[in-house]
Amino acid sequence: IRANSPAARDVAYALHPYTDLRAHAENGPLIIARGEGVRVYDDQGRDYIESIAGLWCASLGFSNDRLVAAATKQMKELPFYHAFTGRSHGPLIELSEMLVERAPLANGGAAMSKVFFANSGSEANDTALKMIWYFNNATGRPLKKKVISRVKGYHGVTIAAASLTGLPANHKLFDLPIAGIFHTTTPHFYHEGQEGETEEAFATRCADDLEALILREGPDTVAAMFAEPVMGAGGVIVPPRTYWAKMQAVLRKYDVMLVADEVICGFGRTGSYWGCQTFDITPDILTCAKALSSAFLPISAVVVSDRVFQGLADGSKTIGTFGHGFTYSGHPVAAAVAVETLKIYDEMDIVGHAQRVGPYMQAALKARFGAHPLVGEVRGIGMVAAVELSPDPAGRKNFDPAAKIGPRLVKYGEKHGIILRSTPGDSIAISPPLVMVENEVDEMVERFGRAVDDLAVELRR
Ligand code: PLP
């Protein structure tokens, strides 16, 4: 690292999220200087295809003049106002309306009712949890407050969201989860399915595990389940076809609310507008973020059913005002950018685009990696996929995590001009900007393939 270079200054002053800090001090950062379409460029001018849209978020890619104009216009008109104590503003109103209009049907089959804003996926999930606790307090069931999520589910990093996140190795670092949060079976047939078990029987077993957990804890004490329609950061785990019908039947039986975490799945990623629609999920609450503003500014939303809204509204009388909100809940500039983002999604028919390019991308990944000697499973749906690396594909084995195979592949990716993301189990997640077209898919898969081939050569040495 050259003295006084930006890399040296980064190492000297910046503390990075989710980063091996000792290794970072030695290697320095990859500094991204600008973006255009599905590519980003480093400070040396080298281009990289962004196979993961930043962090599964930049759905319109890394340049968009309309979003710049929307932000600029709003900054000139009203750079900030808040939504506390009855205040409001135009972008918040318009975005609330647009989200309710586009939301999937709620539990019970009626339309979703209202929207609450926050700044990140973690905050949205913490907010949903506080809403549920408040709802049960307000409706005279203060003991109904335990929550279930799933092993390998990802819901964020604030204390409650990190507890919901089902990564045991991460929990150990912080003495989590907090009391009352439990994790049930990951619906990943490839790894969790048993000898001789059909996928259908496996889905039934997942629902049975959920029911057993609810019964063990006591249905009167279990308030909600948080789940991504398709798990993202846990390794792009697409559940069996009948999984969600069976899971929802159990939840309904015990009046356990369902929070659909659409932070990755929302806005076309799985080939429907919402992951809920891909899997016929009717949630009580939906959380979203990331692609809501195509990542141009931080904003997240909690969309609630009418039943939840009525509980929150009545609570003001029975137990006191819902005392929760962020300074920047519904920030006007972020909301204006989100409004423009949703308009662009409509105009470009983002769902139709994902339905066209998604199968093309899945087929290209299967063709390139399906029989690769270093690949165990290629899986995905819509425009999200994973390629799981394996030392023994026939035995469905994973590499020893200490070998850091995924991170090593990511380095080879950089050499070949592609940004890759490794998730636990050395599953390389692919979730490109949704604007990606077929010839860019080809180029992405080609660069990715060269990186995997390089890794294979290294491992044979
Ligand atoms: N939920 C899901 C499904 C996510 O993938 C993420 C982030 O990757 C989060 C929640 C947390 O979002 P944030 O990082 O904006 O807090």
From TrEMBL:
<dbReference type="InterPro" id="IPR015422">
    <property type="entry name" value="PyrdxlP-dep_Trfase_small"/>
</dbReference>
<keyword id="KW-0670">Pyruvate</keyword>
<keyword id="KW-0808">Transferase</keyword>
<dbReference type="InterPro" id="IPR015424">
    <property type="entry name" value="PyrdxlP-dep_Trfase"/>
</dbReference>
<dbReference type="GO" id="GO:0030170">
    <property type="term" value="F:pyridoxal phosphate binding"/>
</dbReference>
<dbReference type="InterPro" id="IPR049704">
    <property type="entry name" value="Aminotrans_3_PPA_site"/>
</dbReference>
<protein>
    <submittedName>
        <fullName>4-aminobutyrate--pyruvate transaminase</fullName>
    </submittedName>
</protein>
<dbReference type="GO" id="GO:0009102">
    <property type="term" value="P:biotin biosynthetic process"/>
</dbReference>
<keyword id="KW-0663">Pyridoxal phosphate</keyword>
<dbReference type="InterPro" id="IPR005814">
    <property type="entry name" value="Aminotrans_3"/>
</dbReference>
<comment type="similarity">
    <text>Belongs to the class-III pyridoxal-phosphate-dependent aminotransferase family.</text>
</comment>
<dbReference type="Pfam" id="PF00202">
    <property type="entry name" value="Aminotran_3"/>
</dbReference>
<dbReference type="GO" id="GO:0009448">
    <property type="term" value="P:gamma-aminobutyric acid metabolic process"/>
</dbReference>
<dbReference type="InterPro" id="IPR015421">
    <property type="entry name" value="PyrdxlP-dep_Trfase_major"/>
</dbReference>
<dbReference type="GO" id="GO:0004015">
    <property type="term" value="F:adenosylmethionine-8-amino-7-oxononanoate transaminase activity"/>
</dbReference>
<keyword id="KW-0032">Aminotransferase</keyword>
